[in-house]
Amino acid sequence: MTRVGIIGAGRIGSALAQGLVDRGYEIVISNSRGPETLTELVDTLGPRATAGTPEQAAESGEWVIVTVPLRAIDTVPVGPLAGKFVLDTNNYYWERDGHIVELDEKRVTTSQLLQRHLPDAKVAKAFNHIVAAQILTDGEPAGTSRRRALATASDSPEAARFVTDLYDAFGYDTVDIGSLAESWRVERDTPAYGVRQDADELRANLAAAQR
After folding, report:
1. Are 63 and 85 in contact (CB under 8 A)?
2. Which pLDDT score is estimated for 208?
């Protein structure tokens, strides 16, 4: 599956777009302001990249990355994502997103909110606990000692395996947390969030997380 839709063109979306085109993928990238605002980014990314609307990104991608502020997930197109892998990079920053009671009360995770919005998609947590600027710099070949590891979580084992393969292509080992309900272990303010760690260290940090 080599056609990717990216909904969100901030730092994470732009870094992933660059990493994907460098690996031979074709992408359609979108934001909330319109394709005309992405001309400079697309020119930088080269001929494998096209700007579109969120609907066009959702429709054209064989799989899709959602990397928008959490407050905007209700604007993500629903129908075109049915049956597709949807990679969720979102994190909850109440200072930016406003308070979301379910998250404040620890009743759901950010990825569960997206899965609820996209009931027929296969949502997987991905690339949410690494600084955007490091996505393209910290990857190393498989087998490298203390290779950096990233976590994923999904209610779809197939989606989790897909993320595992993608992480490897970007140069990272994977630790599978399990279901989306467990993805809080790698959200903001947990030991695993935003730090460089190998797989063993990541497992330890996940285990040390307190909700």
Report:
1. yes
2. 97
